[in-house]
């Protein structure tokens, strides 16, 4: 009897505990040039509204890309994107963070286009100390070519969270204590690019890009960057522990965020390396951490 009485209390406590998490600060829209510069094929980037909105263009000669001016150790990075519509099979649009050295860290969003009316795929990956092979693939619950949606990364010492709008679609917790490297001492730049990848992106290269549908256009706005800016060689963030993303409520997802994450996992997952026992006979350690406990 006595133990029954404790149940509601425990339940309430766990609710309170799991509601510590919080939604990242709302991104602020700034012009492209505030945070970014073109990287290659400059004439394939079109600037509208004084750079408030930018189009990347892919044709059969070249794709294009841009990168952040600064390098960052931790923070919140987001982009509003409207992806290539219509027949976009073979076309890949990427938005990612990466350090520049050989044993690099990387946090990736990659959108793989598809034939008209077929769903594109969002692939995410995390590289730590040069090791990747942590692909997850999902379908989205909307058509990403119809409207702008916000794709963002929250990166602190505790976790890396991938958000689509306000929905966390993936979390990679710091599992250093389990022997898994976690990005913490290599500043990353933010990159985006649009290119042709019909050698691998479409069902292993089966579908080819239809160049009669070119040019392919991906549209961007937002360009929000809120990070600890560091020199490329820095080993730590000068304001470590003091920024909003370091605080308690951003050290884990909250109950609602876990429910949303589970909804994505249940309804939209195509592939998750964490559940691929052929490839990983033993569960990669970080996968034990990526859920509510
Ligand atoms: C394209 O659509 C087909 C059919 O629905 C699907 O099997 C495939 O995963 C989709 N994505 C890519 C990149 O091929």
Automatic annotation (TrEMBL):
Its EC number is 2.4.1.207. PROSITE patterns: GH16_1, GH16_2. It is found in: Secreted, Cell wall; Secreted, Extracellular space, Apoplast. Glycans are attached at residue 114. Pfam families: Glyco_hydro_16, XET_C. Contains at least one intrachain disulfide bond essential for its enzymatic activity. One of its GO terms (molecular function) is xyloglucan:xyloglucosyl transferase activity. InterPro entries: Beta-glucanase-like, Beta-glucanase/XTH, Beta_glucanase, ConA-like_dom_sf, GH16_AS, XET_C, XTH. The keyword Secreted applies. CDD domains: GH16_XET. Residues 1-21 form the signal peptide. Residues 23-220 form the GH16 domain. Keywords: Apoplast, Cell wall, Cell wall biogenesis/degradation, Disulfide bond, Glycoprotein, Glycosidase, Hydrolase, Secreted, Signal, Transferase. The active site is at residues 106, 110. GO terms for cellular component: apoplast. GO terms for biological process: cell wall biogenesis; cell wall organization; xyloglucan metabolic process. Belongs to the glycosyl hydrolase 16 family. Catalyzes xyloglucan endohydrolysis (XEH) and/or endotransglycosylation (XET). Cleaves and religates xyloglucan polymers, an essential constituent of the primary cell wall, and thereby participates in cell wall construction of growing tissues. This is Xyloglucan endotransglucosylase/hydrolase. It comes from Cucurbita maxima (Pumpkin). The gene is LOC111482176.
